[in-house]
Amino acid sequence: MSKRFSTRMSDAWNDLCAALAATETWAFLGSHDIRQRYRRSVLGPFWITLSTAVLIGGLGVMYAGLFKMDVHEYIPYLAAGMITWNFMSLVINESCFVFTGAEGSIKAARMPLSSYVLRLVWRNLLVFLHNAVVLVGVVLWFLPFNPMGLLLAVVGLAVIGVFLFWLALLVGLLSARFRDIPQIVANVLQVVFFMTPIMWKADVLNNRMWIAEINPFYYMLELVRNPLLGQPLTWDLWGNVGVVLLAVAAVSFLFFARFRTRIVYWL
């Protein structure tokens, strides 16, 4: 390993450490983004909760009939999948502009670049928590109370947060360099949504189960959905999640170390 590359790796690592040390800053800015978004609104951020409740209720009744499934079984499945997917898709879509949208701040202030990604993930985690009111309500209404399941779902959510941080860092960096990336990401996510078991169950694929098994978002969804629905988190699932997480983190960190200093010139 050359000395120059080693220095870049060290600088990238120091950037990450500095961002984590400045938690109060990006957490405050992320919370401020939510407050500004719903400024002078009567319900404020709880519009998120209300709109999610209406969406889950309407789709749950309709698709339960289409798929000939019991409503009491289908609505919790749909709620867990839809709300978790919305969290992931919002972070990925917005990550396309995490650096280009903060051009003024990046050029004017000496903040760690990775702190902008942490701010993005935190902001959308707050949106998820507002939606989680609906999710927890649905689970408690239709299913027996399972405190261990709720705890494991929180652990799964934390893993998803780490996965999204690395993915958002990579997408944000590529979007700063290539301005076509946001359009590509938006179209890819639209296709992935329909190919991911969110409104339908993976077992309907039968001998085409590989369609779900090559989809990393399927494993991330299962981390939250399975424990909430009283299903186990198998070692195979954890293994697949670990492989996906390590692969994304390694690629993202290497790209960040290599091109971190160029981001400001790409803006």
What does the model show?
The protein has 267 residues and is mainly α. The chain contains 12 helices and no strands. It has helices at residues 3-21, 23-37, 46-66, 71-95, 103-108, 113-142, 147-177, 181-195, 210-213, 216-228, 235-259, 263-266. Helix 1 packs across helix 11 (235-259), helix 4 packs parallel to helix 7 (147-177) and helix 7 runs parallel beside helix 11 (235-259). The longest helix is centred in the middle third of the chain and has 31 residues, at 147-177. It starts with a helix and ends with a helix. The mean pLDDT is 85.
Helix fraction bin: over 70%
How many domains? The number is 1
Instruction: Quote the average pLDDT.
Output: 85
Total of DSSP H or I helical runs spanning 4+ residues: 12
Q: Structural class of the secondary elements?
A: mainly alpha
Poorly predicted ranges: none
Radius of gyration: 20 Å
Q: What would you call the shape?
A: globular
* Main sheet makeup: none
Topology:
Layout lengths: L2 H19 L1 H15 L8 H21 L4 H25 L7 H6 L4 H30 L4 H31 L3 H15 L14 H4 L2 H13 L6 H25 L3 H4 L1
Helix pairs in contact: 1-6, 1-11, 2-6, 3-4, 3-6, 4-6, 4-7, 4-8, 4-10, 6-7, 7-10, 7-11, 10-11
